[in-house]
Amino acid sequence: MSFQNPIFIPGPTNMPEAIRQACYMPTIDHRSPLFGKILHPCLEGVRKVLKSDSAHIFIFPSTGTGGWETTLTNTLSAGDKVLIARNGMFSHRWIDMCQRHGLDVQVIETAWGNGIPTDEFETALKADTGHAIKAVLATHNETATGVKSDIAGVRKAMDAADHPAFLFVDGVSSIGSMDFRFDEWKVDVAVTGSQKGFMLPAGLAIVGFSDKARKAADSATLPRTFFDIRDMEKGYANNAYPYTPPVGLMHGLKLSLEMILEEGIDNVIARHTRIATGVRHAIDAWGLELCATRPEWYSDSVSAIRTPEGFNATDIVTRAADKYGMAFGVGLGEVAGKVFRIGHLGSLTDAMMLSGLGTAEMVMKDLGLDIKLGSGVAAAQEFYRHGS
Length: 388
Fold this sequence. Notes:
Blueprint: H1 17-23, H2 33-49, E1 56-61, H3 64-75, E2 81-86, H4 89-100, E3 104-109, H5 118-127, E4 133-139, E5 141-142, E6 147-148, H6 151-160, E7 166-170, E8 189-193, E9 204-209, H7 211-216, H8 229-237, H9 247-263, H10 265-286, E10 289-290, E11 302-306, H11 314-324, E12 329-330, E13 339-343, H12 350-366, H13 375-386
Parallel strand pairs: 2-3, 2-4, 4-7, 7-8
Antiparallel strand pairs: 1-9, 5-6, 8-9, 10-11, 11-13, 12-13
């Protein structure tokens, strides 16, 4: 691999040099007021990115997986029932986590490549007249398949059923890259991580809790220590953590948020949509198809591209790395070997994306696929020149 080339995996993403430098700061006393000048702008900045006026923000030294454990253990008790669709690798992993925590998981099996079936959610919730279901879990952007689900539609289904369950949303590969409306969609917990739209190394689990979810932490009985938001809340009140915080990563997050908010979160979202649309034009020009089966499900942060039957898509990723020093994403789970993934999120421009598309074309041509060099690049160029 080459450190000079941008990467096109769906996370960790490219880091602006200024953010990388911000992470490598001198040691400070993390129990001094100086740390508070890093901490509190981070909490407020994340709240703005979530488009919330009142979310309780918690930032743990962890990853998105730790964010999900934070969500479950602070709101639920053993034996509680949750509802979730299994439509990709990451929803599958959340199901596994719930089962390991002793939760009763009602799974709606969904074909990989499809979004969350909101109509089936509504049916399941209406059938739950005793309100045994305590939480609905939704993966906003399924990174393995490049599928974006309709979280507003999930909320609409919950409201149509007049169901009081929590709404927990995995926004790990969407928040900071795609439209996310915590307050408007009445999300109870949103989970993300530092290494995607926030353009940082992995190492921070970032969660937002509604008032309702925060209150549940006082009665939930699943075991928690490291991820107890009540302890974190007490620490924040004193400009501190209940243990040693990741000061460098927090300093980088502070700058990342400043950059995102200076660009404007809606402009950031529009940039991701524009870049992703150019990628989709390239895929069409190659004569290939996305794993996502319908346009409304196309992700603006990652495209999972199906290769012809009998072709090992992983070979594209391997050759790109070995021959051209560029990183793309392999297929995962049920689509392993059937798709390769182009991540187009975080610190990315039209011109950077064109380099990735050009390299992908060379690799596919090298491997014998019927790809005309320049076809996808030209299609993306036309869109980037004239698209908005």
